[in-house]
Amino acid sequence: MSGSSYGKIFRITTWGESHGPAVGAVVDGCPAGISLAEQDIQAFLDRRRPGQSKYTTKRNETDTVEILSGVFEGKTTGTPISLLVRNQDQRSRDYGNIAVSFRPGHADYSFKEKYGFRDYRGGGRSSGRETIGRVAAGAIASKLLSELGITVRAYTKAIGPCTVSENEYRYSEIMENSFYMPNNQTATEAAQYVAGLMSEQDSCGGIVECVADHLPVGLGEPVFDKLDALLAQAVMSVGAVKGVEIGDGFGAPASTGSRNNDPFRIKDGKIYKESNHAGGTLGGMSDGSRLILRAAIKPTSSISRTQHTVNESGENIDITVRGRHDPVIVPRAVVVIESMTAVTLADLLLQNMSSRIDYIKKVYTEDRNVE
Amino acid sequence: MSGSSYGKIFRITTWGESHGPAVGAVVDGCPAGISLAEQDIQAFLDRRRPGQSKYTTKRNETDTVEILSGVFEGKTTGTPISLLVRNQDQRSRDYGNIAVSFRPGHADYSFKEKYGFRDYRGGGRSSGRETIGRVAAGAIASKLLSELGITVRAYTKAIGPCTVSENEYRYSEIMENSFYMPNNQTATEAAQYVAGLMSEQDSCGGIVECVADHLPVGLGEPVFDKLDALLAQAVMSVGAVKGVEIGDGFGAPASTGSRNNDPFRIKDGKIYKESNHAGGTLGGMSDGSRLILRAAIKPTSSISRTQHTVNESGENIDITVRGRHDPVIVPRAVVVIESMTAVTLADLLLQNMSSRIDYIKKVYTEDRNVE
Amino acid sequence: MSGSSYGKIFRITTWGESHGPAVGAVVDGCPAGISLAEQDIQAFLDRRRPGQSKYTTKRNETDTVEILSGVFEGKTTGTPISLLVRNQDQRSRDYGNIAVSFRPGHADYSFKEKYGFRDYRGGGRSSGRETIGRVAAGAIASKLLSELGITVRAYTKAIGPCTVSENEYRYSEIMENSFYMPNNQTATEAAQYVAGLMSEQDSCGGIVECVADHLPVGLGEPVFDKLDALLAQAVMSVGAVKGVEIGDGFGAPASTGSRNNDPFRIKDGKIYKESNHAGGTLGGMSDGSRLILRAAIKPTSSISRTQHTVNESGENIDITVRGRHDPVIVPRAVVVIESMTAVTLADLLLQNMSSRIDYIKKVYTEDRNVE
Amino acid sequence: MSGSSYGKIFRITTWGESHGPAVGAVVDGCPAGISLAEQDIQAFLDRRRPGQSKYTTKRNETDTVEILSGVFEGKTTGTPISLLVRNQDQRSRDYGNIAVSFRPGHADYSFKEKYGFRDYRGGGRSSGRETIGRVAAGAIASKLLSELGITVRAYTKAIGPCTVSENEYRYSEIMENSFYMPNNQTATEAAQYVAGLMSEQDSCGGIVECVADHLPVGLGEPVFDKLDALLAQAVMSVGAVKGVEIGDGFGAPASTGSRNNDPFRIKDGKIYKESNHAGGTLGGMSDGSRLILRAAIKPTSSISRTQHTVNESGENIDITVRGRHDPVIVPRAVVVIESMTAVTLADLLLQNMSSRIDYIKKVYTEDRNVE
Questions:
Q1: ipTM higher than 0.85?
Q2: Which of C8, C17, C125 is facing B2, going by the closest CB pair?
Q3: How many structural domains are present in chain D?
Q4: C294: β partners
């Protein structure tokens, strides 16, 4: 049921299967007047494109985006922005046992049961290519946020057991290693760890962290559409994500109120928090501090090792999943998590426009000709 | 913006502030023909009622629910079910510094910034009493689920550092201790831990786990309204929750594909998984195994210790938050998490009715008089 | 399925049955900072209250509203506003044949088929009392609109064949006759017409017209949520309404482009239209001219005459619908149509806040402390 | 704000401008297992294609549709169906005064005010080409309805003053004349009428009627999402529609209850109505009789005559709208109205699946493996 859309005002709809003609997205509700060109979106798509390092699938796709509507003379018009990316790698091939068996860790079985049959080519709708639409939409959301000085950036905090602890962050190194980790040394360790798994036809997961800065206070709608709640939906909806946390997250339970509460202080007329265990949200609304979230990503399900499973005829079989798999999907998930965060923030930014009668008066009284 | 509603078909709307006349909920989209009485709902509300142990606030409220609509002759009619709980404890009192200062860890500051002013009485809309509507709605969702044999139950996995590990679960002990833990021994340790904090005017958090059994395969709507994504929103939207995970969750990143993938097997014509690291979801849809989620709950923000903060005049001050606080909110959050899980499952169960043309034909061809 | 809510940002949810304990509404998404008291709402409810003239049902209800949430210190807080009206006239009585037969022109049969059974007391959810929630919400929407100088007013254009033509409008007479017609003379003719029908145990319908002035240009969201489209839904959703038209409406087809197009002109720097066949919308957005809509209301279905029908046992029978019926529902529908128009305009006013990046910058750059 | 989507379960999103690269639609929530091919959709698009008679624009477009997702092996998969139609007639040309003036009767002025600037090429998003997405989606909805034996068909009831009265309907003649009228004689008169207007560089409107048969009883969701209310939104959202009525519509007010009520009768165990003034809805739900609606369509706004207007510099000017205009848009609107009706019915059909617990049990108990 209409599960392919996200957001209330800034609303994205994605579509497309791995081996169909194309994938894409429609972004509705984007305000008019924002500069937007295909290269703005392409820059985001290039960050999730396969084949960029030896740790990602060799599938060769340029993932070139075409803007089909909603932009005129270089600016958004306020009408829906339709984005199209043709699938290039649709070569006809024998799907063999994939077509008639349920791969462990994949959506094959649940898709089959839900819909009665399934598009078995490359995972169909559950393929990682589904995220192309998210990232294209995220690029537009980021443009909107940047108009207000808001920045969002994601990076890899952990690959398997190789974790960058908070006091070792070097943000300048993020773009210097294949894993987008804020520490080249840890990235080197991660590379060795992943290489070992690859030699064993195995895979691993990791943790992506995303931060947003310069948010206005008050984004997020009590009660169910809280900032942290919508971020949790947005991020958990990305395939392979098994957990989401804000601020201290799963570390908070073992803390105490006196340590976990972030004291408010004022300096030069500006309110700030002395610490940020909360990760930038209070009562489900942004609190003016840095927003911090983390996503736990499971090991890639596609591994070349032989595994137990069941086929559609109801027989126990052994399966070997051939093909070009990412031994770790985390580096390519970074821009996806960043995009979903940006989309959520853009939507809540627009929703918040109606929170106060004084804002409404300001817009309509000063800007509008009322007869 | 309309953030007080959740669900697409089975849709709940909650309303009410801590110290206003009442709190309540409207449940729209509940199918007709389900037996429902006030005692069904009251049983759930009694589980979150304050004053049941020395670890919960002494605020004395019976929280008696009244069904105002949507039920006729003991059955749901298909029309909206309006639920009302009068606030009893609205005694006039001096809110003192609370009214003009921002309590650390609370929503005071973000509410003030978002809306321009705030209802400072007992936290207003951000009060824990907001969850009454959720729990009342959850009781109805649970009735619906039980018609299909689906069960949902939540319990406390950890209080501060006192954790029940999976091989120590004794479900029969859940109702035998004040913390709803599946192990009385751990509950005793937790009691000592909490007592220590209370003596220091401090507080702690914990982890709630929720499981659901006997789910049909295929609940959850790709892409954004996946089962796990909506559960993440639903659970994270509960005040004080800072993290949500499904199955192995934040443990998954450090595992490997060969260990983390759950092999399918078939026995007596039924498909099952040999393990359940996934926690009952594949591709964002239920996979027929037990659904398992966990919520990380932060330490209670209201502590009697003196804390740094800022007042509405923009001055740095020290604040002491007086009143009747739960030193740990976790035991009362158990039924709230269970309720949000039930509401999410009920909604996805109904959404899934339209997934296949054969279901649609079945309902309309056999049951309906078509002229 | 969740059909009891309307609006995207300014979102109303109504609940309640004719003979249940109460009826009410929840208004979510109302901006903070608007003055609101129970008397603001009561004034609207009093306009639809029964028993005000001999042409309305004698059912005696004060329809006293209670605000249960969302207002603090006389102003809206931005949180959901819960409104409650207790049903007073729930006297136990014998519903007789109503309970087991399908009244012609009523929803009895379709309710029974849809839900499997029905609340037969006074029409249950399909009773005219369902509109109480709409009117209460409409009062709040009107308060919001009035903050921006927007006015909405409805009146009766026709009772049966007695119609006030446009050149005979005398707005000052609207409140001077029982039918809320802008011409006392026509109202007198209507009174005679209705009296004749009453003596024959019959009923009639009429046409309500609603106008809104001082709207900003551009309200309404292309493509499906156009101003006129949402007004059509809002007004057609009122029981007994069988048609909705904007501007020249059903008169437009027989006109020609050269006559029907409204020429733009400019005077003193302000753009206006020389005529208003369009009724204030162009491309589904407000165009700065007066908004004009009309609703066609069918004759009251409840008549005392004997009618043919079928009972639940599947037998052809004759039915006599006893009780206190309005011989014409039109006068009481006036405030309902006005309320639905106000709610639609309020929602679109808020939706439109996000249409342009310059509005967004204005609100966030000037008003917000961005760290 | 996200106004480009319609429907709750069967949800369509359209996008695209007249002179951009393409127009299209995404249909989300379509059940799996329905046979669907491009020719199913093309057949609908061909009905609205320009250039089919001398009464429609000469713009030459084949409007060839491509299915980009959601169909596998000839059947819908349950995932979003993306539909693409490339614009062929985008020849570069001088838009002249259109680019800087507001055409009377068009959305130019309201678009400019709403969004700050506008895509002036061929009306941009407000172009009639926007309906391509609606019609493509309508074709899919019709396929779904046909699986249950439900039929929907629209035709022209009136062109200007030339009206087919009900006792003159000859349905077999609908496809025999350029206007899709159910009476060739009236069509001939209409042809003469339109020819006269064309010679005067003028245009006219008309009335489209749409009927649906074999609907299950009970489609439509009280209170705001009633069948007639959603049809009103759906149909009024089509450009140029100024009024919508159901059954007797604007004729009902002058009738009386005794004549307007449709008596129920039973024959051979089936309930029917002796008349159908209601047009197939009672209480906003289908009542088992034929659904009947009518849409009033205004005269084409684009006429070659010189008209008064204002330009963007704020000057009063005379404008001549050159180009290839339909002197009457009604014949091409027929399939658009039919499509919007089909989409609405499809959505309500799916929504209604959850109305009763017995349907839910039937689907899940019999069809699903519940562990």
A1: yes
A2: C8
A3: 1
A4: C209, C245
